[in-house]
Amino acid sequence: MSSEEKNNTKQSNHDDAQDSPELITKRIYVLALTLAVGFSVIWILPKSESMKVSCLSRHLPMQFDTMIGKRVDITGKELQILAKDTEFERTQFTNSANPYHPPVEVSVVFSGKDLNNSIHRPERCLRSQGWNFVKERTVVLANVFPDGSDLPVREIVCKKPVMRDDGSSFEAMRVQYYTFFGHSGITESHYGRTFQDMKDRLFKGFDQQWAYATFSVPVTQVYVDQGLMRDGPGAFTLEQSEELLEKFIRKLGPLVVDRSRKE
Predict the structure, then answer these.
(1) Alpha-carbon distance 133 to 201, whole Å?
(2) Residue of 199, 232, 208, 237 lying closest to 220 (CA atoms)
């Protein structure tokens, strides 16, 4: 065997040894430990005396464009799962110029000091309420704000059976968009919000209030399909409901989000 072949054999054996299951397992443990230590450092950082407020306005306007708002009561069950200093508001908007448009419901939740018990993914609540997801995706609404910035949202299309008093049932369907608002950052991702919060605490030295907003509208075409309402201008397909919701957000967004803050 030539010296070159011997060297190649040694190198191959060396590579096999480096990629052995034992070494791979050790690398995984080291990586996991490094990440755990890194994340732990975030939580032991000293907290500031006060939080920087969310860029989302605390209160929704009760009238804008052709939309008229009406406050909706928050149920006791919803409040029970949130920290006591959490602020919660829900408003239903109807279109005064077109009574056939289905109402748009907007919910906003503002975190308190206990972020983990104030802000969570809406998916958890929806599933616990019996909604079944038929479509999920991330949507980026381009140029929503005056500075030309975009609004990323998470879309959920869901269905659930609704029971009548006589024991019969029908199917309801809704489109929902949601996103999270920090002091300056906006993200549709729960994990993106977590990392943004960590980054700001570590590199900028401040705590911040987070808020999340959900925008939802019923898909009324399903009622036509089930014989519950007549076909006509009040019947909105899924695509039409998505378009209606996007237009609504484009009108409301610049009124309630402060994009003048620097990242």
Answers:
(1) 34
(2) 237
Q: How far is CA 159 from CA 8, 38, 121, 150, 241, in A?
A: 62, 41, 18, 29, 14
Return the sign of the alpha-carbon dihedral for residues 83, 84, 86, 91. Answer: positive
- β-pair type (132-141, 87-95): unpaired
- Three-state SS string over 36-96 comes to HHHHHHHHCCCCCCCCECCCECCCCCCEECCEEEEECCCCHHHHHCCCCCCEEEEEEEEEC
What residues contact 160, with CB distance under 8 A and at least 6 apart?
Answer: 129, 130, 131, 132, 171, 172
Cβ 185 vs Cβ 56: under 8 Å: no
Which residue is associated with the tokens 């239903």?
92
Q: Which amino acid is at 74?
A: I
- Positive or negative torsion for Cα 67, 63, 251, 210: negative
Q: pTM score > 0.70 for this model?
A: yes
Across-strand partners of 208? Answer: 52
What gap in Å lies between CA 98 and CA 66, rounded to an integer?
Answer: 9
Q: What is the pLDDT of residues 225-261, one digit of tens each?
A: 999 999 999 999 999 999 999 999 999 999 999 998 7
pLDDT digits (tens, 9 = 90+) for 112-164: 776 665 677 788 888 888 999 999 999 999 999 999 999 999 999 999 999 99
